[in-house]
Amino acid sequence: MKINELFNLTGKVAIVTGGGNGIGKASCLMLANAGAAVAVSDLKHEDALKVAEEINAAGGKAIGVACNVTEDSDLVKLVEQTVQQLGGVHILVNNAGGGGGGRENPFKISVDDFAWRFKLNVYSAWRLSQLCVPYMDKGGYGSIINITSMSSINRSPNMSAYAASKAAMNHMTANLAMDFGGAKVRVNAVGPGATKTAALASVLTPEIESKMLTNTPIKRLGEVDDIAGAVLYFAAPVSEWVSGQVIFVNGGGVQTLD
Ligand SMILES: NC(=O)c1ccc[n+]([C@@H]2O[C@H](COP(=O)([O-])OP(=O)(O)OC[C@H]3O[C@@H](n4cnc5c(N)ncnc54)[C@H](O)[C@@H]3O)[C@@H](O)[C@H]2O)c1
């Protein structure tokens, strides 16, 4: 295959959750740049529409869809709308997620809050995969990319719900790769280290950043394009024999909040 074909997504349709900002937005722009039509979905419809507009204005093809990934009916509608308006689904980026931030003191967090992290991070990715794979099978091309986290392998205080849910995503990735291989659908995960987004800004202080950098060989924090580059690798034909893997994009180090 020629080098430009290895990363060519022309004719492919991608769904990205949480695509209105941060890593999700960068992934939408990267996939569109490689030729994919993109369903930019987000809890904040306005933000999804803005990203879709940016892609369309640059000559690509995108729609902006309102979708709260913790609502099953939204997930069903997202897939239906994508198929109706863009003609199928070949790539799914399960990016919307959250929790952690050192806010999960086990003496204070409620059972409902703990369960909510799993609903947001694990359930939504599993369910969307289940909904999308039949279309990927039909379309003859499928790649699912789960955005997990370095928290899935780090040990940190007050992170047990987020960290456990992201670890569950890593293992779910390997198991779904077994289930969906027969449909020629690949399932992989990208685990970001500390990456400059609004989510990180809400917990970062200059002191924490400087400690993070002492433990990071590549002496900077992550940019959203660092993560989107790994998403593109898994989405594109270049990785057509890669499945069930987790790649950590972390500047070669470990960045924790404690
Ligand atoms: N930024 C980091 O340092 C970092 C590190 C590791 C993992 N991650 C993971 O990367 C992913 C994206 O994080 P980010 O830093 O880009 O966040 P962000 O806050 O910059 O953007 C998140 C986007 O997701 C949307 N969103 C939030 N809840 C949603 C829901 N229920 N349904 C649909 N959309 C929803 C938000 O509206 C927003 O547009 C998350 O899964 C996060 O856990 C981020």
The CATH topology is what? Answer: Rossmann fold
What is the CATH class name?
Alpha Beta
Q: Level of helix content?
A: 40-55%
Strand count? 7
- Biggest pleated-sheet summary: 7 strands, parallel
CATH architectural designation: 3-Layer(aba) Sandwich
| Associated small molecules | nicotinamide-adenine-dinucleotide
Percentage of residues in strands = 5-15%
Shape category? globular
Fourth-tier CATH superfamily name: NAD(P)-binding Rossmann-like Domain
Main sheet: which strands, in order across?
Answer: 3-2-1-4-5-6-7
Euclidean distance between termini CA atoms: 46 Å
Number of helices: 9
Spans of 5+ residues with little confidence (pLDDT < 50)?
A: none
Mean pLDDT: 97
Give the tally of structural domains: 1
Oligomeric composition of the shown chains: single chain
The Cα radius of gyration reads 17 Å
Q: Structural class of the helices, strands and pairings?
A: alpha/beta
Helix and strand succession?
Answer: HEHEHEHEHEHEHHHE
